[in-house]
Amino acid sequence: MHKKNAVSGTKVKLYRTLPDRILLAAVWVMMIFIMLIILIPVIFIVASSFSDPRAVSAGKVFLWPVDFTLVGYDVIFQSPSIVKAFFNSVSYTVVGTIVSVTLTMLAGYPLARTDLKIRGVVMFFFTVTMFFSGGMIPTYLVVSKLGLIDSFWAMILPSAMGVWNVILIKTYVQSSIPSEIFESASIDGCSDWKYFTDMVIPLSKPIIAVMVLLYAVGKWNDFFSALLYLNDVNKQPLQLLLRNVLVENDSIGMAMNLAQQMSRQELKTQLQYSLIIVSSVPVMLLYPFIQKYFVKGIMMGSIKG
Amino acid sequence: MEKKKKKKWSLKEDFKKRWQLYLMLILPVAYIIVFCYAPMGGIVIAFKNYSFRKGIWGSDWVGLKYFKQFFVNPDMAKLLKNTLIISLYSLAASFPAPIILALALNIIGGTKFKKFMQSLTYAPYFISTVVMVGIILQCLHLNVGIVNNVLEFLGMDRIDFMGKASLFRHIYVWSGVWQGTGYSAIIYIATLGNVDQSLVEASLIDGANRWQRIKIVELPALKPIITIQLIMAVGGVMGVGFEKVFLMQNSLNLPVSEIISTYVYKRGLHDMQYSFATAVGLFNSVVNFILIFIANKVSQKFGETSLW
To answer: How many percent of chain A have pLDDT more than 90?
Structure first.
């Protein structure tokens, strides 16, 4: 039990008795189990995506690529519809994140100002929507009445602002920017707007980072809006195309010249693995940044909640 | 916004002083009105025979016709049962999991390994639902999935996991645990990190072992958060995720995988029975609200934290 020292530190009494040792051993067994159960599926998908389709179909792939090949990725980059869907997703994510963060900041800052008398009413007005909603069909009808079906904005507007995020901003501004700063600024003739752009935004950088990440991941992963509001194949984001390929087993978007080189079924399988990887890579690239801010964001939210 | 005048403060004065803040609020308030309150108003079509041509207000009233239609529908009992079983099973499995993970990570202590395990366990949270279902389908695939590859390697028969209706709920629930546990554990881990060290020392002096410390110090520290999370989770029972169930559905598992929200989607957006689907959705929300209300009442009774 050489781990004991690292664990118990100076507290000598810890993990001496039998029940304690059983507990510690159980915890380590559990950790190793969790590690394996999380990593194995991921490694399997990565390994399969680099394996020869014939080996995959024969069920020979475990955790290492068999007969290394990049054919699955070739298909992706040679398929115009996949590339298109990828860039659609990029633009929904970029524009959506900008719109969402802007709206959330515009709502969060005034609501943090205790000298704004109407804020109680507005806050109540916002909070109600966290408990009641119109539901799928009425929301769909509103979106369709606005003429947003099959438009770019159908992916941006219906889920543009999360009230929970507004509360996060409000809490952050209230608790981390002292009101004395505003008081002295307003004596110097600083307007509410100027105070917002010159003081609040620069001082709120950490929470804005959290917002950007929350919204960007949400937009990138959004499948629901596309399923409901987009029928036009040219507008579909990657998640919807993924659904067609991964779940519906559809073969749209295949590069024909490659499809002729091998059986369609094999190529389809291959495409599924490589698409999983390609669609997850952007979020995984963000992950190191996300994880630092994300924990903070959740904690800031829970202070209030 | 009509309530403004009832207050003692004067809207006019407030606006004069703070008009820039009012201007800033215009867009967010407009968003909430259009995309949150307008759909709430749209719920009236549950009581009308909605026709696209006549619009929401022009359509004829039919009273409770669609609710009656749903209640006499033989599918209704099945839908309600499926929804409840999936969500309660989900709750039972995914509620304790993060608490156990947090306690276990706390036992490991402030090592690098703990940080690594934390990052690793909440990474799956960022995977999109579509990719998640894709990973499930590939890993459990009859011919190429790693689970079946291992089974065959061990000399056992391959199992058609996704083709067996009896396995659907287990796959749904445990893949949810796989994806969400690390994320849900963050809040518990942070709370355990803030436990008063003097309590820990006192328990050590009293000769408490590690098990007793969990019981005396750590679980009581987590109790308020566990209560809040539990109320929220009970409130979410009827809101069981549409996306994942929908994506995991196939013709073989449909008898157990059809839940209220997927039914609403199919009746509403595929069959264009807008009014009927809205009525079913409204029924779902009402049941949901009653559940969260009861959960809150119960926790108040026990003198614990409550939502309001």
So the answer is: 35
Q: Token pair of B128, please?
A: 């999109």
Cβ-based contacts of B28 with chain A (< 8 Å): 103-104, 106-107, 126, 161, 166
Identify which of B237, B231, B232, B214 has the alpha carbon closest to the alpha carbon of residue B304.
B231
Query: Contacts of residue B209 in chain A, CB cutoff 8 Å?
Result: 17, 19-20
Q: How large is the ipTM? A: 0.85
Q: What is the pLDDT of residue B74?
A: 86
252-271 in B: which are within 8 Å (CB) of A? 261, 264-265, 268-269
**Distances, alpha carbon B201 to alpha carbons A10, A99, A301, in Å:** 12, 50, 30
If phi over 0 gives left and psi between -120 and 50 gives alpha, with beta otherwise, what is residue B118?
A: alpha
Residue pair A258/A78 in contact (Cβ under 8 Å)? The answer is yes
Per-residue pLDDT of B245-272, as tens digits, reads 999 998 899 999 999 989 999 999 888 8
In this structure, what token pair is assigned to residue A51?
Answer: 């394996």
Neighbours of A107 (CB within 10 A): 27
Shortest Cα–Cα distance, A133 to chain B (Å): 6
Task: Identify the architecture of domain A72-304 in CATH.
Answer: Orthogonal Bundle (1.10)
Averaged pLDDT for residues B214-232: 86
Instruction: State whether B42 and A103 contact (CB < 8 Å).
Output: no
User: What is chain A's mean pLDDT, rounded?
Assistant: 83
Residue linked to tokens 């759909």? B39
How far does the CA of residue A104 sit from the closest CA of chain B (Å)? 7
Q: What ranges do the domains of chain A cover?
A: 3-49, 72-304
Average pLDDT (B213-228) is 86
Class of CATH domain B65-301: mainly alpha
| Res A190 pLDDT > 90 | no
Q: In angstroms, rounded to a whole number, what is the distance separating the alpha carbons of residues B54 and B45?
A: 12
Cβ <8 Å between B130 and A62: no
- How do the domains of chain B map onto residue ranges? 2-61, 65-301
